[in-house]
Amino acid sequence: MKILYILPFLLVSQIALAQRTTLSVGLNSGISRFAGASAEKTTTSGTGGPFCGCLLREASYLGDVPAITYGANLAVQHEFKNHFLLGLETGYENLRTRINVEQYQLDDMIFKTDNGYSITRNHFINIFPSAGYNFPLAENLDLSLRGGADFGIGLNSSSRLVIKDVFEDDQYTDRDGLAPGLDFRPRVEAKIAGKRLGLAVSYAHGATNWLNGWAGGATDLHMRVWRVGVQYRIF
């Protein structure tokens, strides 16, 4: 039990011995997609009806076609005298995926779609604790490599179906329950930074199965995220 009293003291001591502590704000963009047996590149959809003798068939929204993603974050980082790094980043992000719609059927009328697609938007509060190493390249120029994991707290999901050949307006659907409560994604990142501005690139490989506990068909779905971000150091 004594170790529990010592740990806070050790943590404070490590922070106090840091060579420098920085606070930064950042914006990022990139691409994200679903992976796994449940993810698809293309889908079809239809209304069903008496003439075709078919049932309603909803377009899949679990796409593995990359779509633009974006986010904003606040980051605190400690660099020790040996250039070892400890960091904590938190922020908001919208991870989007796309699936292309090849065909839409209105009863017995079949429409081939030239540019039909469905975009799924997944909103998260993201927490990224990390550790790494800083390589000084020149005065006020550093290259750092970090590893850690995203802990994405799922807020909500929705999809937007776009088939201009059939519908004048886009079709919006809530997808509550799709984004997991916690999406665990191991992540690696490289950043080059000057005195104030930095440019970071990263990849996160989702380990959480989004369809865990779902019934019917393939239930294997994971998130993949590539990001490019700019950071501004406040101090």
Question: Keyphrases for this structure?
Answer:
elongated; 6% helix; 8-stranded antiparallel beta barrel; 235 residues; mainly beta
Rg over CA atoms, rounded to whole Å, is: 22 Å
Percent of sequence in beta strands: over 45%
Total helix count?
A: 1
What is the SS-derived class? mainly beta
Q: What's the order of the H and E elements?
A: HEEEEEEEEEE
Average pLDDT value? 89
Assembly classification = single chain
* Alpha-carbon distance between the two ends: 38 Å
Question: Low-confidence parts lasting 5 or more residues at pLDDT below 50?
Answer: none
Query: Which range best describes the helical content: under 10%, 10-25%, 25-40%, 40-55%, 55-70% or over 70%?
Result: under 10%
What is the total tally of β strands?
10
